Amino acid sequence: MKNETGDQKFIDQFEKDVLEFFFDKVRGNLWPYIYGTPQDADDPVRGGILYNEMLEGEKDYYLYKYEAQLFQSKGKDIASLIGSNATFIELGPGSEQSLRLKTLPLLRACTDLQGYVGIDISQSFLDKGLEVVRNELPNIEISGMQQDFTKLKELPEFDNQVIFFKGSTIANLRRDELPDFISQIKELAAENHYLLLVHDCNQDEESLMKAYHNEGMGVFMANIMYRIHRDMNAVGMEPQAFRYSPEWDPEGHDLKHILVANKAQKFEIKGKTVEIAEGEKFHTLSSFKYPVKVFEEMLAPSGYKPIDVFLDDSQRLTAHLFTAS
Ligand SMILES: C[S@@+](CC[C@H](N)C(=O)[O-])C[C@H]1O[C@@H](n2cnc3c(N)ncnc32)[C@H](O)[C@@H]1O
């Protein structure tokens, strides 16, 4: 079995999560694995590529555009609260485009910015991202760590440190994972630091369905089955026999990414048999859409104090600035 990071711990976690998904009916736990990369030209595992194609092709997927607008219009306001001499530690910076359109407008708005650290599981995303920041901001300290941000053991310490997590990835964590993740970050970061988290708080089913229930998103989301087939060596699995059909649970603020089996099938994973019925639903991951107050309440037990909240013009994309002190 191969994996693009070559990181054995990551492979072990993937195996554990997939086994729990099929045999223990754990749901929504496959979010860390959707950005798979091909190992050769014929490899159908292309999550990272399909995500970018979806961003380019699906005009109703508003999250990326509106988040870019948010940083471009409110970057100065956020930066003025953070103050001078800041160093940003960004979790999962993403593609070159993401750095150019979202991260850089914010970094440029900061007075006497000191540094930038990127932490990404993908060495290729990280290398490209750091190159972009280095070229655009040649006078600051720049470094990177190739790591899974959910398994961090330490973080570098700086004066006026900002932990930055954009792209609504925080809203992919399961509700039971979120408190531990946030507490872990608080423990590892410098005693006084800011936490800047961005997610989508839209509760409108119609615009959510337009954003998610489309062909580009469907192909991207269904690709996880090819990754399971490849990396779990799932003998007899037909990864193409699933269709995407998201569901909105307004009470849970939960946009569920669901794959529906087009046919019955039976296959082997790690010596155990998986049996799937036609029409069976598989909730692979969620994009939670927490309203502002709900999100702040979820973070309250960690001890983070909300400082301010910034929204884009559509009132959907939300940047929360918290302080640890
Ligand atoms: C495609 S991007 C989307 C989010 C991105 N922050 C943005 O705003 O565009 C996801 C990024 O997070 C990284 N990533 C995903 N899961 C990760 C994890 N568990 N640890 C570290 N990086 C991760 C991916 O490699 C990628 O760079």
Fill in the keyword field for this structure.
alpha/beta, 13 strands, four-stranded antiparallel sheet, 36% helix, 325 residues, seven-stranded mixed sheet, globular, binds S-adenosylmethionine, 10 helices
Number of helices: 10
Overall strand count:
13
Bound molecules: S-adenosylmethionine
Mean pLDDT: 95
Unreliable residue stretches: 1-5
The helix content is 25-40%
What share of residues are in beta strands? 15-25%
Structure characterization notes:
The chain has 325 residues and is of the alpha/beta class. It is built from ten helices and 13 strands. The chain has helices at 8-23, 47-57, 63-82, 96-109, 123-136, 178-188, 205-212, 215-222, 224-231, 292-299, and strands at 87-91, 115-120, 141-146, 161-165, 193-200, 242-244, 247-249, 254-261, 265-269, 272-276, 281-288, 305-311, 317-323. The strands form three sheets. It has a seven-stranded mixed β-sheet with strand order 3-2-1-4-5-13-12, with helices on both faces. Strands 6, 7, 8 and 11 form a four-stranded antiparallel β-sheet that branches. A two-stranded antiparallel sheet has the order 9-10. A hairpin with a 2-residue loop joins strand 9 (265-269) and strand 10. The radius of gyration is 20 Å and the shape is globular. Residues 1-5 have low confidence and may be disordered. The structure holds S-adenosylmethionine (SAM). S-adenosylmethionine binds next to helix 4.
